[in-house]
Amino acid sequence: MDQVRRITYATNSQNSVDLSDLRANDERQRRLQTDIEQLGYRYQPKRMEKALQPNDISSGVAAEAILAVWRESPHQAKFFAREHFGKLYDHVFTDDLTGAQAIIAVLIYRMTENRRKRPQNHDPVFVRYVSCFMAMRMGVHLLKDLKIAKGSLDHIRFPTAKQTLDAKGESCFQTALQEIERALGQLYGAGKEISWQQRAATFCRGDLIPYLKDIE
Prior knowledge:
By secondary structure, this protein is mainly alpha-helical. The protein is 61% helix and 3% strand.
């Protein structure tokens, strides 16, 4: 059966079949669904026709958020969506992934996506293009505020993590924004005019990630 599943996933990664539906009955998806529901949210491993409610989390959004925030691969989160339930599946949905980690990642991701869609007047123009990079850095700063490692974010620490994110989310966002601006300056040279083609290529390839990690 495992061999059949592997062949099915490999075959369908080349066409429009939604691999998330094929993965819906995977043991990791079932475990994550139970874990998330214990914390008051509802996980949707399959595509749904009806609109999602605020406490609903689709597997597609979860994959993008987890890949950006906890796997520190924002370029893959944004530009490799077809691989999230294919080649990248084991990297995203690891055996030690907790429901608390998944929910917090999604909440951070929603914040950065909302800002991307509705930037404030004082936000730099590039805020529309770096939501997953912002989410990655916000995850780093949230863990620092909590004084814990990612692996310690469990059911017990979830309420504190959510309260901290609610209280300090904007501060984390602004810090992340400054770090990305600084990293762009290091990559291209401070004050240098950068075309949007260059910026797009930078974010697609993840060139900025080493510069952001050096900031730590």
